[in-house]
Hints:
This protein is an alpha+beta fold.
Amino acid sequence: xxxLYSFFNSSTSYRVRIALALKGVEYRYTGVNIRVGxxxxxxxxELNPSKGVPYxxxxxxxxxxxxxxxxxxxxxxYPQSPLLPEDKVEKARxxxxxxxIACDMHPVNNLRVLGYLSKNFGVNDQQNPSGTHIGSMxxxxx
Length: 142
Ligand SMILES: N[C@@H](CCC(=O)N[C@@H](CS)C(=O)NCC(=O)O)C(=O)O
């Protein structure tokens, strides 16, 4: 059975859980509590050197971190309920929005980045830089 290492309110994890649910694929869920640093434990680091969630292992032993790679793999492996439109313009639009979230917005909002900013520069929640990307997301609406 597929195994998913995940945290309940991690946005990168729940985008994979949403894809699994839309595909109707069963999986075993293992919680990794990133709020208390379980992602940095020796045992988890040995499993997933990128020290984050989600982490995915399938029945054939294929292992992936990176939510978008996992979702793309699921979409190709389980073609039912396709996640991407066939039309190339619509597909590019979905990829544009996905990249805006996964590549622009999420990284600056990640725990390790917020921890670094708070520890080294005293940045607080209100100064969280992810807000700057929400404006650019609005500009993407056509
Ligand atoms: N680009 C990766 C990001 C994975 C990631 O950073 N996940 C967060 C949770 S949303 C995490 O594990 N953070 C732990 C940390 O920053 O120490 C993906 O899309 O899967």
